[in-house]
Amino acid sequence: MKLSINGNTVEVPDNIRTVSELLQHFKLEQKVAVVERNREILEKKDHPTTEVRDGDVFEIVHFVGGG
Amino acid sequence: MLKIGPYTFKSRLLLGTGKYPNLEIQEKAVYASGAEILTFAVRRMNIFDPDQPNFLERLDLKKFTLLPNTAGAKTAEEAVRTARLARASGLCDMIKVEVIGDDKTLLPDPIETLKASEQLLEEGFIVLPYISDDVVLARRLEELGVHAVMPGASPIGSGQGIINPLNLRFIIEQANVPVIVDAGIGSPSDAALAMELGADGVLLNTAVSGADDPVKMAEAMKLAVEAGRLGYEAGRIPKKPYATASSPEEGLIGS
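YS: structure for the whole thing
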């Protein structure tokens, strides 16, 4: 399926069903990452139960150096 | 002690984490500064490079309080979104509200800053707005319930130091919440002056990260903030136009 992640169209395997699985796919499950799906911000506890569907728009953000 | 909302800190120096030469120097500088509050920005991850180094992962988060900023936001709406993303990390509930209104000077937009602060207070954030040295805006934000105000000394990253000490003094005199001088600090004497004026803290980044020796400068800033605070608490002598002898006039050796 096709997703929009951080402004890019990304093709991911169809067997990815949840946000947790999406993060595992990109090997980001151990990272401090915050996920927004279709403009809805998710808490970590929501990752295993939030579904991923074709056409979803994701933002995956983290903390970087800043003042 | 610096009290911000429910939190108490020994250090009055808040350190930014941007633009260090490398992560090793950055880590050493953070420890040399003695800072307990570190600012961060929120940005998109490179999802195709999970192993890219990230400073946050090096830190013992029990020792530091994170102060994410909303840098990059130009509207209240964008700032609120960034703040919510930061808090969803589960690592922090403080937010530095930074809404830039001018690309050249990076001066903050007062109206959007006020709107964003109001919304974030409603949502239960500990709100620290970055503002110009605007006395009335500082008061209006305090009336809203912000947990500290952070007036700039001069434009971000400019290193020009405190351009308008009078305004800072007015802000400090009227404030019932901590005043943290944020942005524009260039040298230890700037930081000391901010503290001598009565500021409750200083937030700086480029002055340390851009120094020839960031680790040494971090320590210098730590000492400057401590010295300035001690000087403020001790109460300086008034300035006079003419000299007053320090040595007694009695018992002078006769001619």
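YS: worth flagging: The CA atoms of residues 69 and 96 of chain B lie 4 Å apart.
IM: good catch. Also Chain B has a mean pLDDT of 96.
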